[in-house]
Structures are given as structure tokens and as C-alpha cells.
């Protein structure tokens, strides 16, 4: 008689093998489903995102004459979602003129992007986070990195102050590196800081360069893949804060001796450390990150203003908020390793007490002005470890304009008149800060 245990064991082993094999070759089990396709064209770079229910392998290469980017995705069949990509390429996309989609081999879909210029592509995958499933991200950067300083000059064309900015660009002391990714070359005009050089010592007072306008870097939070907080009525933080920043830029540019620079001027994602690098590159005198708050309870309301803390947050709610804002990089999608992480790390380590003191001063003025147009969530500046406030040499504050999770405040944030009121209040706060500052007297 055969002992009954033997066939049972064999079955168990077979079962174990199946379990082990399946996750290794998902393509064999079934074709992955593309859930959504999104495109985010911008001057700085164009992003194409394919969202799917399984992590997929992709290979890519570029071709010249004419410039093309070819991406092969394994484990996918052609579907409506992926075909939608063709119609999602906009005629004004700075990098992509058209895309062709085809089943290249069984189980392999090939995307061919016809390009308007040579690109430095970044292709990477992201694990599920927030509302998103697996994402395959294609970032198309220009072959030569864009210098934020040149973008600022272009923006101030026909501006009587442009000459001053221009002289700064040519002979100025900006040692801050140009934000760039792997595979990009630096523009020929850019002066490269010596290898491993630390950022220059912090300027202790704003407006110390005589004759130069005060330059305010405005940083609308989130963007692109990262919507930020979303209100009950579907209002997205990224849209509201961009509107407020655009309004504030207009107000600032209309002031004599003041100019504004935007870290993003449309709906695309900018990593947190790139926002800081851009502000340093244009030598901003002030950095203002604009956000809208959210909390689980819809009753939470009011504005708040934040400065950096190097040693823990002022409360557990503050720590939670800083983590939520810092998660922007995870949701927006950063190709770790593509951006110069070295620079980011140097920045993290160099935050200074002087910067924070100045930040608290300007933040206090801004909070006072905002208090005139909205209820305050807290009556004083709060502090936490926000990554975006870590420029060692620029006073930096983060404004939570209101709670988008509060129905009344969501309604206010949607209103152009209220957006304008917020912009005016922030401008007044900035002006109070600069006029209270003795350095202004020297500017003449
Ligand atoms: Zn935010």
C-alpha cells in the first residue's frame, strides 16, 4: 500500500511553485491594465504618466534625424486607455509633436514619441501612493538645462529694471547651481561653481545689493500629478495656490523696486528641492510658498504662516502638516537620483539660525496682514521641518492661506475677490517687513 502522505506532499510543492512564479512573471498571468494616461507639458519638461494596476518593465532609447524617443512596455496589450495618449499630446507641447502606439511584439507595446527637440529622458516607475496605482513616468527634459535666471530675464523684457537684473546675470555672484537632471548639459553662459563648494554664506539682511530690485520668489505648492489637498466640492489646492501666486506676482511687479519670480507658472510638478534651487539661482531676497490646508474635521479653519524648524515641530499637528507637504515629492513623483541629490543634501545641512530669524520676522508681518482678512488658525508663527523652506541664504515662509477642507473657506478660496484679498495682504506684509528693515535705507 502506498502511504497517503506522498501525493499530498507533491501537490503542496506544486502549489508552492505556482505561488513563487506568478509575481515574477506577471505578464504571463494576464496583461496589465492601463488605468489612465496623463500628460503635463511645460517649458521646463514634459511629463507623460501611464498609470496601471501592476508594476511594469519599460525600456527606452532615443533616435536622431528626426529626434524620437522609443519606449517599450512589457506585459501590456493595446487598449483604449493607451490609445488615448495619441489625442492627449497638445499641439503646444514644447517637446512632443506626436506619439505613435503599436503592439511591437506579443506582450510588448511600443510608444514612439516624435520630438520637437533633442531630449534627456528620465524613465522611472513609482509604487502606489495616495490615490494612485503603479505609475510609469516619462519625463522629457531639454538636452541643455534651463537657467531660471534666463527665464527671469525673459519675463522682465521691456522692464526698466531688466538691465539691473541682466548685469546680475552676467557678472553676478550667483554660485547657485542650475537645477538639472542626469543627461542634461549646462547652458554655455552658466558659471559652474567649483566642485563640492558649499553655498555662499547667508545674506543676513535683505536688499543689500544697491540698485537691484527686491526679488520675491513665489512658490505655488504642488502641481501636475500632485493635486495637493482637495475640498468637498472638488477644489484642488494646486489650482487655487497658482491663482493666488499669479495675482500676487502681478501686484509685486507693479511695485517700484520689486519683482516676483514664480517657481512654477502652470500646472506641472516641481520637486521640492528644485523649487529651492530655482530661488537660489535667481538670488531671491525672499521665498514664499503658498498652500491651502486640510484637516479631517471640516470645522478646522483659519490661515497660518510657517517657518523652518531644524529641531522638531512646534506641535504634533505641525509635524503632521510638514510631513503631508513634504510628501508632495512622493505623490508628484521624483526620479530619485536623477536630480542632483548632492546639492539637495548640502542645502539640508546648511539651514541657519539667521535665515530662520529673518523668516520669523517676515512671517510675523504677513500673518498680521492676513489676520485682517481671515480668521487665523494660530496667532503666531509656527515651525516645522518643511523641505521647501530650507534655502540656507533666503528668508523663507510657507503660508497656509485657509482650510480647503472647510466648506466655507473652500468657497472663499474659489472666489477671485478673496484670492485677490489674500494676495494684497501678503504684499502688505512683505512691504512692512522690508520697510521696517534698516537695510532699505541704504538702497536709496
Ligand atoms: Zn500644500
UniProtKB/TrEMBL annotation:
InterPro entries: AMIN_dom, MurNAc-LAA_cat, N-acetylmuramoyl_amidase_3
SMART domains found in the cross-reference section: Ami_3
Enzyme Commission designation: 3.5.1.28
Statement: the UniProt record of this protein carries the keyword Signal: yes
One GO molecular-function entry: N-acetylmuramoyl-L-alanine amidase activity
Annotated catalysed reactions: Hydrolyzes the link between N-acetylmuramoyl residues and L-amino acid residues in certain cell-wall glycopeptides
GO-annotated cellular components: outer membrane-bounded periplasmic space
Region ranges (Disordered): 172-232
Keywords of this entry: Cell wall biogenesis/degradation, Hydrolase, Periplasm, Signal
Keyword Lyase: no
EC category: hydrolase
Biased composition (Pro residues): 195-204
Primary location group: periplasm
Family to which the UniProt record says this protein belongs: Belongs to the N-acetylmuramoyl-L-alanine amidase 3 family.
Protein name, as recorded: N-acetylmuramoyl-L-alanine amidase AmiC
